[in-house]
Model the fold of this input.
Amino acid sequence: MEQDEQLGEERRSNRHIPITPISRRAMLSGSAGAAAVVAIPDMFKHATSKVSEPKPGSAGAFFYIFGNQTSSALDRAVQAGSGSREGIRAASPHLVATKLAALPVKSTDGEFIVLVAKNQMSSSAELKVKVLNARSAACIAEGALTLERIPADAHLLVKPVISSDSRVVALVLSISLATNKTSVNKVDALTNKSMWIPTASWVSHHAIAYFWLDRQTFTGPYDLSDAPSLANTTAICDTSDLFLWTVEELAARSLQKGVLSPIPRLSVFPIGSGTARRSIPVPGPWPGGEPVVKLPTGEIARLVDREGRMQLYSPRTGRIRIADVSGLDAGSARPSPTTIAVRQDGRLFLVNAGFGRAVVVDAASGLRTVSVIKFPVPALAAAPPLSKAILASDGLVLYVTGPMQTGGVTAYDVATGRPIATRGLGNVYAGLYQLSSGMILAIKNSNPRLHFFTPDLEPIAIAETPLTVAAVF
Amino acid sequence: MGGYDTSVQLTQSLQSSAVNKYGTPNYWIRYFPPSPAATTLDVHPFLECDAIWDSGAKHLSPISEPDQTNLGMDSAQGHADAQTFINTMVNVWTNVGPLTFPTGGTLYSFLGQENSTHLSSGYWSGWASYVNGFVLNGSSPFFASLYCTPGQGNSCTVIQAASGASACFIVWSAEVENSTSCRGTLTNPPSWNATFCSGISTNLWQFAEKGACGLTVDIDMDLSNMNFPNFCFYLKSRP
Done:
């Protein structure tokens, strides 16, 4: 249980350290030094109330880095940086929050970033939600919710989900309580060493709370009374409903051969309610990290295997169907996740870096695969940041991080599948993002970690961050 | 002794290809949920256990590789991921009749940490304490272990600091990522050269990435005096 929230610590000012633009030669050699970036620990509570307005003439949009540092002071931290060409050169990212309880969430339209922190006390817990204007990093809404009867040793897992019209943030809470505390003697048969360790029967259930952005108030929490369930869930919202996948905990039963397997359930809650208007069994994987998106058709798509099989739920009819996306059937010995994104043009973009495949799918024509682009398997294909390939907003160019042997970033012509440019050779990049300004951000695993390019892959600047980057928003 | 691991479904075609090209395994290491980056064994447990049996191996070792971003989160996420892992293992055990726990009572159960993934101490504590403390019919057969690249990132620091309920029992060392590494087979393995964290034994070594050579398996060996199959699920017969 995390007791080390830094919400109450003394706030220190953010500092921006200028970054020196670098020469293309230095950038391509990977040996250019970057100006030191000083990230000052700053508290979630007020960190973003200091508005960083975009400078005149800049695109204004900020980007947000989520990551960790080995030192606990920067665990699960977020930094914000200006994503414009001028902003990238002018200032390095600054710390916004630490000790988050969940991965940040970006709204469907990209306008908002949701941050959630928690603080567990002796018999209760407090959740704090902060919503930022993604363009300016200004706080536009915040609130706190106290959960009663949460013992200090409970595990409280929070999953924030923002409605597709950005009116409300649903918080799916998984609460695991220890019962029957005792100790058990374990004997490692390899070493014959024995040890007594504390143990308990853990019982998990779920609750939902809603944070309304306009009123900056909560409704709920609503206890779903679904114990014993597994704590992990999958969830997504559209404009009117919260869709929640859960599964009963098998191990809570009397265990013997032949016990029937639990089947996951999809429950549909009208936003604002703790009572499901529909709850149906949905065979398939137990919830726990599988991607889920809302299609332009209104259907909810859960990716149930990494080869492109989707479980589609129609909120209108309440029916479920299966659809297979073609082009992701390469396989790999090592794990490699398939990522999925819904683009502004309504198409789906799926990538499995370990397969060396990216697929563009027309969601409006029965999930027909429009393009399959093959590329060498990027370095660190299964490790965060999971974004290894990005499709330009016009859909014409695919950018991919290079393999371990060469590194770099390569741009491919989507129409032909041929590489058209490679930059940054010698730098092994772990992740790749296109900022809302159009600039390309490539992530390394050691400093200087942040390498910025134009859409033409011309180097702009490099910068340091103290965070091992897990994701960029 | 040696075996294979793979993140794809273990089919008859795959097992026979692996046996013919690289040798007969003593065990297979397969993914269990939550492993969104893999095809997990629980999807087709009977078919996979048949394939394990037909490959000449009778042993199954479990690994779970959650969304790697999770590994940087707190103990609540670690607890939740371990809960899913244990439940799916129990689910497979209850369904596959001939599948039994190791007679010695020790089933090493791996968390997958990819090279460069950040592992937080809170996550490990939540994950390992649930795995180590889980009691099944009066015994506690699950022993928290880690698949990682010792010497890279912070994995050693985290598991060296863990003890008691969150102890890490063994390490499975990953092959350093190199897509040209096709060396070695089960019948002609290299000398033991696994990396390790001081104070915690590396007992299993992924020494070859055959995925780079056209077949979707990696090859593993265990310490010669260990007899790793004794610490795996055991198939008494073909399901």
Observations:
- The first strand of chain B starts at residue 2 and ends at 6.
